[in-house]
Amino acid sequence: MNSFATSVSRLGSRLTLVFDPYHRHVLHSALGRWIDQPLDLTIGVQTEDSAVVALPFTQQAEMFDAVEQELRLCGVRYTAHSVKYGIRLTLQVTAPFYPHDVLTSTAPVLYFTLRVQPQHRLFWTSTQNPVQQGRLVVRLKREGLQFTPLPDVLAMEYVVSQVADDRFSIKDFIVGDTPPTAHERLVPLTDGVSIEKDGLSLPFDFSRGEATLRFAWCAYVDAPVLQVFGKPMRFLYTRHFGSIDEVVRFAREQHETLLRKTAFVESLIDEASLSKSQLDLIRFSFQNFLLNSWWVVDEQGEEWFSVWEGSCYFHSTVDVEYNNGLVYFAFWLPLLEKLLDEWARFEMQDDVGSYLAHDMGTHARVGSQAYPHPMQVEENANYLLMLHTYWRWTGNLEPARRHHALCRRLVDYFERSDTTGNGFPNKGVANTIDDASAAVQYAREQVYLAVKTLSACHAAAQIANALGDAEWQAQCERIVTRIRETLDAHAWLGDHYAVCLERTAEGLHDPWTGEPLHGELSGWDAYSIYTANGLLYLLMSGHTPPVDLWRIKQDIVNAYRHALTEYGCTHTSADKSNVWLSQNLWRDYIAAYLDVGLPDNSSRYMAMEQLMNTAGLNKGFIDTYFTNNLCFYPRGITSIGYLFAQCGLQIDRTQGVVRLRKTAPYPCRVPLLPLADWQKGEVPFVTYHLTDAGVTGTLEGENLLGGLRVEWY
Prior knowledge:
- The chain is of the alpha+beta class.
- The chain folds into 3 domains: 6-271, Beta-galactosidase, Chain A, domain 5, CATH 2.70.98.50; 279-636, Alpha/alpha barrel (Glycosyltransferase); 656-712, no CATH class.
- It contains 18 helices and 35 strands.
- Strands 1, 2, 3, 4, 5, 6, 13, 17 and 18 form a 9-stranded mixed β-sheet that branches. Strands 7-8-9-10-19-16-15-14 form an 8-stranded antiparallel β-sheet. Strands 23-22-21-20-27-26 form a 6-stranded mixed β-sheet.
- Strand 2 (16-20) and strand 3 form a beta hairpin.
- It is globular and about 80 Å long.
- It starts with 5 loop residues before the first strand and ends with a strand.
């Protein structure tokens, strides 16, 4: 594909490089922010006459004639061609990752592999004076970056002080008054590499074959980087490494092991029979999720994990993690358990009752909600749905047991927020869709929130039953019944569900400004892509909520038709400029689980990502169109759900069952990542073959299911 701005990062450790070919630089920091100081990075070839041809990340050299970019789950690969010099240069950047392997996934190390080969022809043009000898070169230049060439590494130091976001100052992003100092090293892994004053180089001679230069880029920040409930916390990797020298030693000694593990994980995604655009969405967004993650530890050894909300900088916003949650279900469910425990510390109160804070804090401080207003019903429902699916997928009821009393209070809020007795919440109903029309964002008696509340209470009733709490179970079932009756009787408009039951704006106030609203509530009867939003987690564990599925299916199809634009569907047919890709993806998966045959729109979604990262734009994964700026956003990793939806994966360990769809749209092979034995490096696959009876599925690696029985549906 054409090159566009893309990121490479680490889980919880913040070391990030944002490669930006348009501006010909790399955004770089050991604190991993897209607002950091640009680095001029020359990676290329120096010819015998000292000319340098390089990849498009420097202002100091001539560019290659053509550069290809290939996204990888754990990095990026560039292939550059020069007809003038008759060479082809390949750069592979790898950020090691392996599920449930903390050291592999968090160590502040990136690996670079440069390979130069002769290329005698480009299109119909033959090279006139091909290069025979030269040097592979890596050079760095940045204000404030201090170099110290040592016998076996190039040492670098700098103060992390740049903030390219005029809304904030550096003090918002650091703990204490002094910006931390970052220690970094370029570590040659190839014999014959020269360590120079500002980089590395390796001679080559094509008469002896192609040349390869490998090196590790290591980082270390010893100072506190996050303040959690007033306590300063350091990166988790400081528990394993006492200094940058220990990181360097690890990077050298373990590089083959780390690259082998990473290649295995990448191969699983490569082998998934998804479309190119689906795979690229997963690869691109995974790195954007990682660059938002924080994994830190205090002096007493207590850990904290949270995820920034991209350009908003909020920590682990519940509604964003509701979508991000699919990556935990795919790779690392213990991280979701951490979040479930952490959110329980953010219980808030209003005149209705208890609700969860929208977020855990902002910038470098965790401890209280930073968002301007709460989303009471929305976040309560999100929490209960994630908790229920975590229990069903793992068989571990302990988090629900720990937070039993809290969950009861969250359900109490649902009941008390309904002041009319019809089950639909009409208090605390501002939701996550914060650039939508008033009808979508904060109308009373929203259908979307009612269906999500119904789903959350259906889930909570099952938790209550498992905990032996009959009174709470009855309350949950009572709310479900009320909502279902109202949904069937008053929300259906013939071919779709209304956005909300109320048609007037009288009595509503904009939660952003506090100003009263008047007149008819425009868009109350629009087609919305959100109606079924609360169903996915239940469907993933094989629990169909008590709703009219035929109407839900019609609603999905008709809203798709009325809200579709160039890059996906808008919130509703009345919100014609607001596209959130993650919510399109969420809708797509629900449609797949319900056997609603929507077209594959991943090419639309990926086209928007490429648009927003070329021609001067550098937005990372951006969830929104031009009217909003949810950029460098973690929520794109919702795309990992393609792997679940493709085979209709359902897991319920409480019933000892794995359910898979009998057939697929075409012959394909899908890794069942949630059922992997990562310690042994073994992953089951479901494979769909073309047979006389059509496309039918078989399971490879049933022995990995640990006694779970397989059901085909």
